[in-house]
Task: inverse folding
């Protein structure tokens, strides 16, 4: 580099430095803008009595630390005192089972019988045939029966259903009725 190029480069650097200095000094930077806004919007907290409260200070200085037996630097809680453990054991001994046994699965009404199933030739789902005395019910999977039961699955030998009110599931077997010849 010759002397002339060095002077041009120095002049360019001085111009850039002056522009940076002017830009920072001019207050258009984000840092100076927030600093100025913060100074203008400062409001001291409203403290009613800023004087020291000597009585509270003396009371806190006179308190004596009494350990509860727990290590302050451990996340594990200490075991309860022996009296508490003995009382809990006595209470458990006199209590019966805490969890009641589950209720029995639901059943269809007494005279309701699942006596068969069938399909329609166009490929629809199975239909179950149930009898209640002289009444015949034909239901598919997902249908409700007597407003109390929802049929969940129709199998070859059993019918699975759900009691709508409680959500409990039950099942009934396919019963075969003896075929009687009609009287002629």
Result:
């Amino acid at each position: 580099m010759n002397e002339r190029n060095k002077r041009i480069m120095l002049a360019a650097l001085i111009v850039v430095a002056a522009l940076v200095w002017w830009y920072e000094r001019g207050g258009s930077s984000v840092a100076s803008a927030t600093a100025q806004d913060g100074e203008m919007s400062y409001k001291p907290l409203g403290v009613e009595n800023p004087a020291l409260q000597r009585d509270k200070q003396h009371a806190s200085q006179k308190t004596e630390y009494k350990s509860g037996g727990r290590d302050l630097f451990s996340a594990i809680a200490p075991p309860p005192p022996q009296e508490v453990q003995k009382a809990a054991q006595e209470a458990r001994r006199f209590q019966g089972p805490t969890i009641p046994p589950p209720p029995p699965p639901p059943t269809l009404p007494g005279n309701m019988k699942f006596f068969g199933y069938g399909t329609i030739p166009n490929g629809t789902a199975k239909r179950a045939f149930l009898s209640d005395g002289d009444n015949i019910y034909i239901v598919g999977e997902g249908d409700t029966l007597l407003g109390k039961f929802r049929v969940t699955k129709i199998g070859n030998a059993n019918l699975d259903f759900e009691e709508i009110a409680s959500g409990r599931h039950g099942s009934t077997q396919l019963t075969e009725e003896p075929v009687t010849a009609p009287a002629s």
